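mind reviewing this stuff:

——
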Amino acid sequence: MNIVYHPADSRGHANHGWLNAKHSFSFASWYNPERIHFGMLRVLNDDIVAPAMGFGKHPHDNMEIITIVLKGALKHEDSMGFSEVIEEGEVQVMSAGTGIYHSEFNPNKDKEVNLFQIWIFPKLKEVTPRYAQRKYQLQEGQFTQLVGPEHSGIDTWIYQDAWLYMGSYNENTQASYSTQLKGNGIYLMLVEGQIQIADQILNQRDAIGISQMETITMSILEKAKILIIEVPMH
């Protein structure tokens, strides 16, 4: 079993005024040679965008891009012709493939938007770009699937043998997660609350990466929301 622990305050931080961003892995001007990626997981950004502000049109290619809005709403427009609002409780995926342009901004004039943006390396390159978005409903005491591979049977699938789950758990309970594919690793981000895995206690926005272990067990110390990102390690 291999474990890497990433406390919340070890993340890269860039505050541009309109954007307050925390980077779990090297991104933009923040570079940490020990924090380039976790297997096929390349980016996990925790962004807060000010009211009526956002990212202008910019390109992506050959990357699976996943957006989870935690609070507020995000307006998305892209070169595929999609113009959508992603709200709290929704997940969006884009397979950038041969190339796309998109913009993202906060449509609310008086509320911030907080989101996770996740980039995962695809197993197929130069695919036709695609877009999907859907609502999800968390059920207390279990993990809810947000994203999976094409064969997983959900609209928000990506070109990689990777799965994303979100779970909500009450304090003084137990939770466990088993990998969907042997050899995959698990990157766990504690969205809120407090949990314990083995001897490690995690607080809000702490993260832990675990590989060479098929099942992890968590003790929920305080009511928690947990994001699981399961990815191939090679």
DSSP finds no helices and 20 strands in the chain.
